[in-house]
Amino acid sequence: MIVETQFARFDSLALDCGVTLSPVDVAYETYGALNAEKSNAILITHAFSGDAHAAGVSKEDGKPGWWDNMIGPGKGFDTDKYFVICSNIVSGCRGTTGPGSINPATGKRWGITFPGVTVADMVRLQKMLVDHLGIRKLLSVSGGSMGGMQVLEWAVSYPDSLASAIPIATTARHSAMQIAFNEVGRQAVMFDPNWNNGDYYDSQPPGRGLSVARMVGHITYMSDESMRQKFGRRLRDRDKFGFDFSADFEVESYLRYRGNQFVDRFDANSYLYITKAMDYFDLSQGFPSLAASIERATARFLVISFTSDWLYPTYQSIEIVSALRSRNRDVAFCELPSNYGHDAFLVEVGEQSEMVRGFLAQTLKQVSK
Q1: Is 84:71 a contact under the CB 8 Å cutoff?
Q2: pTM of the prediction?
Q3: Of 26, 91, 93, 296, whose CB has the highest number of CB atoms within 10 Å?
Q4: pLDDT of residue 255
């Protein structure tokens, strides 16, 4: 299916930092049809480097959506049955207001004068979009990685606005290691001379720093086994040891390619803002425990993790499940076997699709009673 990105503009968005963005634009796409009762809507929340183009073939560039293997007719999120929405987050760089947008007060791009954004702010804008579409209650909210954080925030901030939640390969708060990897990426960007304290939009962007940041991040998305299977120790375009600091090994070439590719589609300042929002996210903040914070949630949950995911390991999903069960919430949990590391939720979708399909069918049956 050919899809086209749509845009909505809102007069203002109040942020947790105390600043109000005015106006604020949001890019979004929809798939499938909304039923007469408006009871079959599902919101998909994207991961760190994702965007509104989650499925179908983009009318703009002809590329498939980042979760096209999960969203569509007969797929996990079956668009023959459900109306699926995906929007780009605030502070992003793919159509929604962010550091690369024009500050109406100055007529110049925000850069690092853009106010700090939280995961709760991202969800607040999504709620405004859902209201704008005339949907009172979502059948489900689902997403992986940072998308899973947004799912959790939805469940506790707007408990009456969703019937179910599907957080995948995620956490209720970052560990020190997860923060550390993000800080390495931020330092790579800011040490690039072209970053120029965030003021680079009329000159050369900090491509080298952003490329290195993406290389580091991409390593964390894979697993030792998936890298061994994909690359091993294979040399590239040579049959013996070279030692000239070019991309001797296949894995080196791959990481350089992924880094350079990222520079072409992502804004360095958005990288800084979004990773910081992830690091500050803590569902238990202001509460004596995670269980106390999650007590506000009334949705039924399906929590999914993957055996080889060392970036968001299963123990973090189990913490979420334990907190929900301690408050007698309806929650199902499954750790799926995979060698793909954190990327498993994007690339290995067979069992994941079956679980999501059954869970959504049961949820729809319950809300239709």
Answers
A1: yes
A2: 0.97
A3: 91
A4: 96
